[in-house]
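Why do we care about 3D structure at all? Because function follows from shape, and shape follows, mostly, from sequence. That is the central idea of this module. The next example makes it concrete: a single protein chain, its amino acid sequence, and then its structure expressed as tokens.
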Amino acid sequence: MPGRSAPRSDRPLPAPATAPLAVVLLCSVGAALAALALPAVLGHTLDTLLADRRVPWPALLGAAALAVAETVLDAAVAVVGGTATARYTARLRTDTLHRVLHTAPHRARAFPAGDLTTRLTANAAEAAAVPVALATAAGTVLLPLGGILCLFLVDPWTGLALLVGVPLFALVLRALVRDTARAATDYQREQAAIATRLTEAVDGIDTVRAAGTAHHERARALEPLGRLAAHGHRTWRVQGRAAAAAAALLPLLTLLVLAVAGVRLSRGALTAGEVLAVARYAVLAVGLGALTGALAAVSRGRAAAARLAPLRRLPARTHRGLTPPPGGPGELRMRNVCVRSEDGTPLLDHVDLTVPGGATVAVVGPSGGGKSLLAAVAGRLRDPDHGTVTLDGVPLDGIDPSALRTEVTYAFARPALLGPTVSDAIAFGAGPAPGPREISDAARAAAADDFITLLPQGYHTPLDRAPLSGGERQRLGLARAFAHPGRLLILDDATSSLDTATERLVQRALARGRHHSTRIVVAHRVSSAAAADSVVWLEGGRVRAHGRHPDLWQDPDYRAVFRTLPATGSARPGEPEHLR
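And the structure:
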């Protein structure tokens, strides 16, 4: 059966809606045609007035209709174009975020949080403005080109006078596009650097306060501001030079055209109405200057689209639509599982492991031995580079992710609590939402009910008003896992911040096995390993031994593992190395 995945496209960006762009294009072109017709009608009206000595009302009404049409069509371009850009921005952000969320977590973590936020907000908005800018460019280009053509139709000499400066203006536009794109790329890069550093500082705020390095962190986060300002000034200088060149060149061209028209009028080659038309067409023709803003916006948008492209190329995790057999015991098997880093270093090396259904297995080993990585592979938070992982005989990479997430539940050392209230944080997860009874039962199993009931509004206390310690956050994470029973529960150092008495209560809940069939516990404490049915001893990404804790305890190297392990969990996900 062919693999299924999130929608993919070879396009750097999804195609925008065509109907609004067609409306913008037609209205923009219509407004340009109305503007081009108006000078001819005004010129004819003036000649008729001077020749017949009467007011040509039909011609005046026609001119008024053209002026109104131009205004209405320009307004339609603004309304429809603004709406289309807003909707395309929302679609682009949603679609790109969908790709981020549907790729393997380790691939998404390659983009720091601040950089990712900048790409999904500012860069997405700039990239989404390009289609409408290109649609309106048709009218923007039509006005000056049509003005030049009409000048030649009225009087070729005035058209030739204008063409003298066109090559110079083309060079100005070319330099503007090239330099704006470079400056925009550099500006967006520094913008992302600031956002990344600010996010790191906020994420590690407790460490910053404890170390008394707030001034250092502020200086580090704001250090790119100088470069950001330099790139911003460079952008304005590029646009300023282009505007100055246009401001100097275009009026001179207008004066030259009017001078030629005046000479032609004095010789009787042009009428007063034709001179009026020439004057209006000269203004439209030198409107090439309006292209500078449009081209600058397109250049910035394309630079922003280039920053979105890596997110859109993130590979989605495929599957074959399989589901584990109903009522399965939760047996987990790993066969010849290998995971390597980008430089080829083995992180998990030929791991073979069978966890019987209903068993509790503790995973121990020195820091960096691959414990959390094994936990991630066991529940398909990461795919192995080689080997197979099955749950009740079904390969994990063949199971529909939505079905897998209802069967495999995680609890982490530093859980991310999501939802407006404490109750919502426990209920958050895949599958059917647990009811109030299931939520309170899960909280009691995680030894969290006692402190939750002491909160100002109990289970309905807003999370941002709940003063939670590290251990209390862990207990809420455990309660969330217990509230979503499945075949496999994976605790990745999820009890590291609990005191001994509370950990024993949690271990008793795990031993009763009411919440999950099979349990994998990444353990840093002897008590966690002793309470498990068996222990997997990892070292250097390899399984050094797999057996019962009392048997392994006879090995002095195994006992030494617990003397070297940290007493608490690892650093907070996303915390920068210099704060760990």
